[in-house]
From TrEMBL:
<comment type="pathway">
    <text>Cofactor biosynthesis; thiamine diphosphate biosynthesis.</text>
</comment>
<dbReference type="GO" id="GO:0043799">
    <property type="term" value="F:glycine oxidase activity"/>
</dbReference>
<dbReference type="GO" id="GO:0005737">
    <property type="term" value="C:cytoplasm"/>
</dbReference>
<keyword id="KW-0784">Thiamine biosynthesis</keyword>
<dbReference type="InterPro" id="IPR036188">
    <property type="entry name" value="FAD/NAD-bd_sf"/>
</dbReference>
<dbReference type="InterPro" id="IPR006076">
    <property type="entry name" value="FAD-dep_OxRdtase"/>
</dbReference>
<dbReference type="GO" id="GO:0050660">
    <property type="term" value="F:flavin adenine dinucleotide binding"/>
</dbReference>
<dbReference type="GO" id="GO:0009228">
    <property type="term" value="P:thiamine biosynthetic process"/>
</dbReference>
<dbReference type="InterPro" id="IPR012727">
    <property type="entry name" value="Gly_oxidase_ThiO"/>
</dbReference>
<protein>
    <recommendedName>
        <fullName>glycine oxidase</fullName>
        <ecNumber>1.4.3.19</ecNumber>
    </recommendedName>
</protein>
<dbReference type="Pfam" id="PF01266">
    <property type="entry name" value="DAO"/>
</dbReference>
<feature type="domain" description="FAD dependent oxidoreductase">
    <location>
        <begin position="6"/>
        <end position="344"/>
    </location>
</feature>
<dbReference type="GO" id="GO:0009229">
    <property type="term" value="P:thiamine diphosphate biosynthetic process"/>
</dbReference>
<keyword id="KW-0560">Oxidoreductase</keyword>
Length: 369
Protein backbone atom coordinates (compact mmCIF):
# COMPACT_ATOMS: atom_id res chain seq x y z
CA UNK A 1 0.00 0.00 0.00
CA UNK A 2 1.28 3.49 -0.84
CA UNK A 3 2.38 5.30 2.34
CA UNK A 4 1.34 8.93 2.22
CA UNK A 5 2.01 11.55 4.92
CA UNK A 6 1.41 15.24 5.40
CA UNK A 7 5.10 15.73 6.25
CA UNK A 8 8.20 13.58 6.04
CA UNK A 9 11.05 14.60 8.35
CA UNK A 10 14.53 13.46 7.33
CA UNK A 11 16.89 13.06 10.30
CA UNK A 12 16.26 11.73 13.81
CA UNK A 13 18.48 14.00 15.87
CA UNK A 14 17.03 16.45 18.35
CA UNK A 15 15.91 18.88 15.62
CA UNK A 16 14.10 16.25 13.52
CA UNK A 17 12.48 14.69 16.59
CA UNK A 18 11.34 18.08 17.93
CA UNK A 19 9.84 18.99 14.53
CA UNK A 20 8.03 15.64 14.34
CA UNK A 21 6.66 16.15 17.84
CA UNK A 22 5.39 19.67 17.16
CA UNK A 23 3.75 18.63 13.89
CA UNK A 24 2.22 15.41 15.24
CA UNK A 25 0.72 17.42 18.09
CA UNK A 26 -1.27 19.44 15.53
CA UNK A 27 -2.77 16.23 14.04
CA UNK A 28 -0.42 16.22 11.07
CA UNK A 29 0.37 12.76 9.73
CA UNK A 30 4.15 12.64 10.13
CA UNK A 31 6.90 10.19 9.26
CA UNK A 32 10.44 10.56 10.59
CA UNK A 33 13.22 8.79 8.68
CA UNK A 34 16.54 8.19 10.43
CA UNK A 35 19.54 6.45 8.86
CA UNK A 36 20.80 5.12 12.20
CA UNK A 37 19.14 5.34 15.61
CA UNK A 38 17.30 8.32 17.01
CA UNK A 39 19.61 10.73 18.87
CA UNK A 40 22.72 8.60 18.57
CA UNK A 41 24.94 10.91 16.52
CA UNK A 42 25.62 14.61 17.13
CA UNK A 43 22.78 14.94 19.65
CA UNK A 44 24.19 12.44 22.10
CA UNK A 45 27.68 13.95 21.77
CA UNK A 46 26.47 17.36 22.96
CA UNK A 47 26.87 18.68 26.49
CA UNK A 48 23.36 20.16 26.43
CA UNK A 49 24.12 23.69 27.62
CA UNK A 50 21.26 26.09 26.94
CA UNK A 51 23.87 28.79 26.51
CA UNK A 52 21.92 31.62 24.94
CA UNK A 53 24.09 34.21 26.69
CA UNK A 54 27.29 32.18 26.62
CA UNK A 55 27.24 31.42 22.89
CA UNK A 56 25.82 34.58 21.31
CA UNK A 57 28.20 37.45 20.80
CA UNK A 58 25.80 40.04 19.37
CA UNK A 59 22.35 41.27 20.32
CA UNK A 60 20.86 40.29 17.00
CA UNK A 61 18.01 38.15 15.67
CA UNK A 62 20.06 35.05 16.47
CA UNK A 63 20.33 36.05 20.13
CA UNK A 64 16.61 36.84 20.27
CA UNK A 65 15.83 33.41 18.77
CA UNK A 66 18.25 31.69 21.18
CA UNK A 67 16.65 33.44 24.17
CA UNK A 68 13.19 32.44 22.94
CA UNK A 69 14.29 28.81 22.61
CA UNK A 70 15.92 28.85 26.04
CA UNK A 71 12.61 30.05 27.50
CA UNK A 72 10.65 27.37 25.62
CA UNK A 73 12.64 24.65 27.41
CA UNK A 74 10.90 25.33 30.71
CA UNK A 75 7.36 24.42 29.55
CA UNK A 76 8.71 21.88 27.03
CA UNK A 77 10.46 19.89 29.78
CA UNK A 78 7.23 19.69 31.80
CA UNK A 79 5.12 18.91 28.76
CA UNK A 80 7.45 16.12 27.62
CA UNK A 81 7.54 14.58 31.05
CA UNK A 82 3.73 14.59 31.19
CA UNK A 83 3.33 13.38 27.60
CA UNK A 84 5.81 10.54 27.76
CA UNK A 85 7.31 10.17 31.22
CA UNK A 86 10.89 11.08 30.26
CA UNK A 87 12.78 13.50 32.50
CA UNK A 88 15.06 15.67 30.33
CA UNK A 89 17.39 16.09 33.34
CA UNK A 90 17.45 19.84 33.50
CA UNK A 91 20.15 21.06 35.87
CA UNK A 92 19.37 24.56 37.15
CA UNK A 93 22.71 25.70 38.56
CA UNK A 94 23.44 28.20 35.78
CA UNK A 95 26.89 29.05 34.46
CA UNK A 96 30.01 30.91 35.52
CA UNK A 97 31.78 32.40 32.52
CA UNK A 98 35.29 32.92 33.82
CA UNK A 99 37.61 35.88 33.21
CA UNK A 100 41.40 35.48 33.40
CA UNK A 101 42.45 38.74 31.71
CA UNK A 102 41.34 42.36 31.46
CA UNK A 103 40.25 41.56 27.91
CA UNK A 104 38.00 38.74 29.18
CA UNK A 105 36.51 41.14 31.73
CA UNK A 106 35.78 43.79 29.10
CA UNK A 107 34.12 41.19 26.90
CA UNK A 108 32.01 39.64 29.68
CA UNK A 109 30.91 42.95 31.15
CA UNK A 110 29.09 43.77 27.89
CA UNK A 111 26.41 41.39 29.21
CA UNK A 112 25.98 43.16 32.57
CA UNK A 113 22.64 44.73 31.64
CA UNK A 114 20.97 41.41 30.77
CA UNK A 115 18.49 40.30 33.44
CA UNK A 116 19.95 36.83 33.89
CA UNK A 117 23.58 38.03 34.24
CA UNK A 118 25.45 39.21 37.36
CA UNK A 119 29.10 40.25 37.34
CA UNK A 120 31.02 38.73 40.26
CA UNK A 121 34.43 39.65 41.66
CA UNK A 122 36.89 36.75 41.93
CA UNK A 123 36.13 36.52 45.63
CA UNK A 124 32.37 36.31 45.07
CA UNK A 125 32.74 33.83 42.24
CA UNK A 126 34.95 31.61 44.41
CA UNK A 127 32.42 31.81 47.17
CA UNK A 128 29.86 30.34 44.77
CA UNK A 129 32.24 27.72 43.36
CA UNK A 130 35.17 27.29 45.78
CA UNK A 131 36.91 24.73 43.54
CA UNK A 132 37.10 26.97 40.46
CA UNK A 133 40.58 28.20 39.56
CA UNK A 134 42.11 30.76 41.93
CA UNK A 135 43.62 32.46 38.84
CA UNK A 136 40.35 34.08 37.79
CA UNK A 137 39.89 37.85 37.95
CA UNK A 138 36.11 37.56 38.11
CA UNK A 139 33.19 35.84 36.40
CA UNK A 140 29.77 36.45 34.90
CA UNK A 141 27.15 34.39 36.63
CA UNK A 142 24.44 33.51 34.09
CA UNK A 143 21.48 32.12 35.97
CA UNK A 144 19.47 31.06 32.88
CA UNK A 145 22.26 29.24 30.99
CA UNK A 146 21.29 25.91 32.54
CA UNK A 147 21.74 22.52 30.91
CA UNK A 148 19.76 19.43 29.95
CA UNK A 149 20.78 15.94 28.82
CA UNK A 150 20.37 15.95 25.04
CA UNK A 151 19.79 12.24 24.46
CA UNK A 152 16.89 12.28 26.93
CA UNK A 153 15.39 15.39 25.31
CA UNK A 154 15.61 13.75 21.90
CA UNK A 155 14.12 10.45 23.11
CA UNK A 156 11.32 12.37 24.83
CA UNK A 157 10.49 14.27 21.62
CA UNK A 158 10.55 11.01 19.64
CA UNK A 159 8.37 9.15 22.12
CA UNK A 160 5.98 12.11 22.32
CA UNK A 161 5.78 12.27 18.51
CA UNK A 162 4.91 8.56 18.39
CA UNK A 163 2.25 9.05 21.04
CA UNK A 164 0.69 11.72 18.83
CA UNK A 165 0.66 9.27 15.91
CA UNK A 166 3.96 9.86 14.07
CA UNK A 167 5.68 6.90 12.39
CA UNK A 168 9.40 6.73 13.16
CA UNK A 169 11.61 4.53 11.01
CA UNK A 170 15.17 3.97 12.22
CA UNK A 171 17.88 2.32 10.10
CA UNK A 172 16.16 3.87 7.11
CA UNK A 173 18.47 5.83 4.84
CA UNK A 174 16.91 8.41 2.53
CA UNK A 175 18.54 8.25 -0.88
CA UNK A 176 16.49 10.79 -2.82
CA UNK A 177 13.65 13.28 -2.66
CA UNK A 178 11.75 13.97 -5.88
CA UNK A 179 8.70 16.00 -6.69
CA UNK A 180 6.11 13.86 -8.50
CA UNK A 181 2.51 14.68 -9.41
CA UNK A 182 2.15 17.37 -6.77
CA UNK A 183 3.71 15.40 -3.90
CA UNK A 184 7.21 14.27 -2.90
CA UNK A 185 8.48 10.75 -3.37
CA UNK A 186 11.10 9.99 -0.73
CA UNK A 187 13.13 6.96 -1.68
CA UNK A 188 14.61 5.13 1.29
CA UNK A 189 16.49 1.91 2.00
CA UNK A 190 13.12 0.57 3.23
CA UNK A 191 11.05 1.60 0.18
CA UNK A 192 9.32 4.75 -1.03
CA UNK A 193 7.19 7.04 1.10
CA UNK A 194 5.15 9.98 -0.14
CA UNK A 195 4.46 13.31 1.53
CA UNK A 196 3.04 16.76 0.79
CA UNK A 197 5.94 18.47 2.57
CA UNK A 198 9.50 17.50 3.44
CA UNK A 199 11.61 18.81 6.33
CA UNK A 200 15.35 18.17 6.03
CA UNK A 201 16.95 18.02 9.48
CA UNK A 202 19.99 15.81 9.01
CA UNK A 203 22.60 17.96 10.75
CA UNK A 204 25.93 18.04 8.95
CA UNK A 205 24.70 15.30 6.61
CA UNK A 206 22.09 17.72 5.21
CA UNK A 207 24.64 18.99 2.68
CA UNK A 208 23.87 15.97 0.50
CA UNK A 209 20.20 16.97 0.31
CA UNK A 210 21.04 20.59 -0.38
CA UNK A 211 23.08 19.58 -3.41
CA UNK A 212 20.62 16.94 -4.55
CA UNK A 213 17.89 19.58 -4.42
CA UNK A 214 19.92 21.99 -6.53
CA UNK A 215 21.44 24.17 -3.78
CA UNK A 216 25.13 24.82 -3.19
CA UNK A 217 25.10 26.03 0.42
CA UNK A 218 28.32 24.85 2.03
CA UNK A 219 28.14 22.58 5.08
CA UNK A 220 31.14 21.27 6.95
CA UNK A 221 31.74 19.28 10.13
CA UNK A 222 33.31 20.94 13.15
CA UNK A 223 34.39 18.01 15.25
CA UNK A 224 34.14 18.37 19.02
CA UNK A 225 36.00 15.96 21.29
CA UNK A 226 34.77 15.48 24.86
CA UNK A 227 35.22 13.32 27.89
CA UNK A 228 33.39 12.66 31.12
CA UNK A 229 34.86 12.03 34.54
CA UNK A 230 33.46 10.90 37.87
CA UNK A 231 33.39 13.70 40.38
CA UNK A 232 33.22 12.07 43.80
CA UNK A 233 34.59 14.79 46.10
CA UNK A 234 34.50 18.24 44.50
CA UNK A 235 31.17 20.03 44.83
CA UNK A 236 30.32 21.87 41.60
CA UNK A 237 26.84 23.20 40.94
CA UNK A 238 27.46 25.51 37.98
CA UNK A 239 28.86 25.01 34.52
CA UNK A 240 32.32 26.56 34.23
CA UNK A 241 32.97 28.10 30.82
CA UNK A 242 35.85 29.86 29.15
CA UNK A 243 36.85 30.36 25.54
CA UNK A 244 34.29 27.86 24.15
CA UNK A 245 35.37 25.14 26.60
CA UNK A 246 33.31 23.95 29.52
CA UNK A 247 32.95 21.71 32.55
CA UNK A 248 29.31 20.71 32.96
CA UNK A 249 28.11 19.03 36.17
CA UNK A 250 25.57 16.28 35.48
CA UNK A 251 23.00 15.11 38.00
CA UNK A 252 24.64 11.67 37.83
CA UNK A 253 27.79 13.03 39.52
CA UNK A 254 29.75 12.99 36.26
CA UNK A 255 31.32 16.08 34.73
CA UNK A 256 31.18 16.53 30.97
CA UNK A 257 34.26 18.30 29.66
CA UNK A 258 34.49 19.70 26.15
CA UNK A 259 35.23 20.44 23.46
CA UNK A 260 37.64 20.87 20.59
CA UNK A 261 36.69 22.63 17.35
CA UNK A 262 38.20 20.79 14.39
CA UNK A 263 36.93 22.20 11.14
CA UNK A 264 36.48 19.79 8.26
CA UNK A 265 37.21 16.61 10.24
CA UNK A 266 34.60 13.94 9.39
CA UNK A 267 35.90 11.32 11.86
CA UNK A 268 33.80 10.85 14.95
CA UNK A 269 36.60 9.18 16.90
CA UNK A 270 38.44 11.41 19.37
CA UNK A 271 42.21 11.53 19.17
CA UNK A 272 44.83 11.83 21.92
CA UNK A 273 45.79 15.41 21.00
CA UNK A 274 42.19 16.54 21.10
CA UNK A 275 41.44 14.94 24.46
CA UNK A 276 44.75 16.24 25.85
CA UNK A 277 43.82 19.79 24.78
CA UNK A 278 40.39 19.55 26.38
CA UNK A 279 41.80 18.20 29.64
CA UNK A 280 44.45 20.95 29.68
CA UNK A 281 41.80 23.60 29.24
CA UNK A 282 39.51 22.07 31.89
CA UNK A 283 42.38 22.04 34.41
CA UNK A 284 42.69 25.80 34.05
CA UNK A 285 39.03 26.11 35.13
CA UNK A 286 38.78 23.31 37.70
CA UNK A 287 42.26 22.15 38.82
CA UNK A 288 40.76 19.26 40.82
CA UNK A 289 39.82 17.35 37.68
CA UNK A 290 43.45 16.14 37.58
CA UNK A 291 42.53 13.48 40.16
CA UNK A 292 39.13 12.49 38.84
CA UNK A 293 38.49 9.07 37.33
CA UNK A 294 37.81 8.95 33.62
CA UNK A 295 34.38 7.73 32.56
CA UNK A 296 34.59 7.85 28.74
CA UNK A 297 35.71 9.79 25.64
CA UNK A 298 33.71 10.63 22.53
CA UNK A 299 33.41 13.05 19.62
CA UNK A 300 30.55 14.59 17.65
CA UNK A 301 30.25 16.48 14.39
CA UNK A 302 28.74 19.93 14.70
CA UNK A 303 27.06 21.06 11.47
CA UNK A 304 29.04 24.14 10.42
CA UNK A 305 27.83 26.87 8.06
CA UNK A 306 29.74 29.89 6.72
CA UNK A 307 28.19 32.39 9.13
CA UNK A 308 27.77 29.98 12.05
CA UNK A 309 23.98 30.27 11.91
CA UNK A 310 21.45 27.62 10.96
CA UNK A 311 19.39 27.34 7.81
CA UNK A 312 15.74 27.35 8.82
CA UNK A 313 13.54 28.09 5.87
CA UNK A 314 11.95 27.08 2.63
CA UNK A 315 13.83 25.98 -0.48
CA UNK A 316 14.00 29.22 -2.52
CA UNK A 317 12.37 27.55 -5.56
CA UNK A 318 10.27 24.84 -3.95
CA UNK A 319 8.29 25.91 -0.92
CA UNK A 320 7.28 22.35 0.00
CA UNK A 321 10.83 21.60 1.11
CA UNK A 322 11.92 23.11 4.39
CA UNK A 323 15.44 22.96 5.80
CA UNK A 324 16.33 22.99 9.49
CA UNK A 325 20.04 22.29 9.65
CA UNK A 326 23.44 23.83 10.35
CA UNK A 327 22.92 24.61 14.03
CA UNK A 328 26.69 24.46 14.67
CA UNK A 329 27.28 24.78 18.48
CA UNK A 330 23.64 25.35 19.34
CA UNK A 331 21.49 22.44 18.17
CA UNK A 332 20.26 21.53 21.63
CA UNK A 333 19.55 25.11 22.66
CA UNK A 334 17.73 25.93 19.42
CA UNK A 335 15.69 22.73 19.01
CA UNK A 336 12.39 23.95 20.53
CA UNK A 337 12.34 27.27 18.65
CA UNK A 338 13.45 25.61 15.40
CA UNK A 339 10.66 23.03 15.70
CA UNK A 340 8.12 25.76 16.37
CA UNK A 341 9.32 27.77 13.35
CA UNK A 342 9.30 24.77 10.99
CA UNK A 343 5.86 23.73 12.24
CA UNK A 344 4.57 27.24 11.53
CA UNK A 345 6.11 27.26 8.05
CA UNK A 346 4.53 23.91 7.24
CA UNK A 347 1.15 25.02 8.56
CA UNK A 348 1.57 28.36 6.78
CA UNK A 349 1.25 30.36 9.97
CA UNK A 350 2.84 33.75 10.59
CA UNK A 351 6.59 33.67 11.37
CA UNK A 352 8.57 36.47 13.03
CA UNK A 353 10.05 38.29 10.05
CA UNK A 354 13.47 38.93 11.63
CA UNK A 355 13.95 35.20 12.20
CA UNK A 356 12.78 34.30 8.72
CA UNK A 357 15.34 36.74 7.28
CA UNK A 358 18.17 35.74 9.64
CA UNK A 359 17.99 32.03 8.82
CA UNK A 360 16.80 32.04 5.21
CA UNK A 361 18.47 29.54 2.92
CA UNK A 362 19.74 32.03 0.34
CA UNK A 363 21.16 34.70 2.70
CA UNK A 364 24.37 35.99 1.22
CA UNK A 365 26.47 35.58 4.42
CA UNK A 366 26.00 31.82 4.32
CA UNK A 367 26.35 31.33 0.59
CA UNK A 368 29.33 33.54 -0.28
CA UNK A 369 32.58 34.15 1.57
N1 LIG B 1 27.59 23.87 22.46
C1 LIG B 1 28.87 23.52 22.86
C2 LIG B 1 29.69 22.94 21.81
O1 LIG B 1 29.31 22.89 20.66
O2 LIG B 1 30.80 22.53 22.11
Amino acid sequence: MKKHYDTAVIGGGIIGCAISYELAKTQQKVVLLEAGEVGRKTTSAAAGMLGAHAECENRDAFFDFAMHSQRLYEPAGQELEEACGIDIRRHNGGMLKLAYTEEDIACLRKMDDLPSVTWLSAEDALEKEPYASKDILGASFIKDDVHVEPYYVCKAYAKGARRYGADIYEHTQVTSVKRMNGEYCITTSGGDVYADKVAVASGVWSGRFFSQLGLGQPFFPVKGECLSVWNDDTPLTKTLYHDHCYVVPRKSGRLVIGATMKHGDWSDTPDIGGIEAVIGKAKTMLPAIEHMKIDRFWAGLRPGTRDGKPFIGRHPEDSGIIFAAGHFRNGILLAPATAEMVRDMILERQIKQEWEEAFRIDRKEAVHI
